[in-house]
Design goal:
The structure is a single chain. The protein is of the alpha/beta class. It has one domain: Class I glutamine amidotransferase (GATase) domain (Rossmann fold, 3-Layer(aba) Sandwich). Helices cover 30% and strands 28% of the residues. The chain has helices at 17-25, 36-41, 53-63, 65-74, 84-88, 108-113, 150-153, 214-231, and strands at residues 5-9, 29-33, 44-47, 79-82, 90-93, 118-119, 124-130, 140-145, 147-148, 166-171, 173-175, 184-189, 193-200, 203-206. Strands 2-1-3-4-14-13-12-9 form an eight-stranded mixed beta sheet, with helices on both faces. Strands 6-5-7-11 form a four-stranded mixed beta sheet. A two-stranded antiparallel ribbon has the order 8-10. Helix 1 (17-25) links the parallel strand 1 and strand 2. It starts with a strand and ends with a helix.
Amino acid sequence: MGEPKIVVVDYHKGNLSSVVRGLARAGAAACTSDDPDQIRNAEGLVIPGVGAFYDAIAFMRESGEADAVLDAVAAGTPLLGICLGLQLFFERGDEDVPADEGADADDAASEQAGGPWVDGLGIMRGSCTHLESSRLKVPHVGWDQVHMTPAGAADPLLAGFAEGANMYFTHSYAVADDADAADVLARTHYTRSFPCIVRHGNVWGCQFHPEKSSALGQRILKNFVSIVEGAGR
C-alpha cells in the first residue's frame, strides 16, 4: 500500500503549507484542493485552522466544498479539523456574522452568548462562542495543557499522547458547553473549560495546532495518517 492521499481543504483564507508538510512528515501524500470532486474522492481530509467562522463556512457552501466534505464523511472518509476546522464541525458559530445575516438560536447556551448565528457543518451538536475574560488575555495564544477524558485516553488519534501535555493554541473562539459530552476526547482550561479534542464517528478535531506543537503534535498527525490507512478507502 502506498502513502494515503490526504486532501487539505483550501477555503482560500491563508497559507496551508505547514499542515501539508506535517502530514507529509507523518507519511501521507498530502495536497491542498478546493475542488469538490477531489475532496469527495480523498482517502482522508483535513480542514485547517485559518480565518473566521462566517467567512469560512460561507465560502465552503458557495464553492460546494461543504457538501463534498459531508458526502465524504457519510462515505466513511476520516476527517480531521484543526482550530477553526474543528469549530466548523458544530451546528453554529457567531464569529464575524453580519447582524443582518445571522439567525437566532433558541437554546439556553445560545441565548446566553447572544448570537447572531451562522450554521456550521452540523456534524456535531453544539455552538462555538467567544472566550470572555477580564483577567486572562484573549486571543488565547501559546502553550497550554490538554486533559484527556477516558474516551480520549482510549482513542487511536491519541495513542502515545501524554496526559496534561502542552500543545500550541491560537484562538479567540471555542466550543461551548452545549456540546455533546460523548464527543469530547480532551479539554483545556483557560477563560473557561472547553473541548480541545473531539470525535464523532470518523470525524476528529483539535482546537490546538498539531502542526505547530512539536513532537506530540506530530504524533497526532501520524496517528491520523494511520487511521486513514486503516480505513482503506
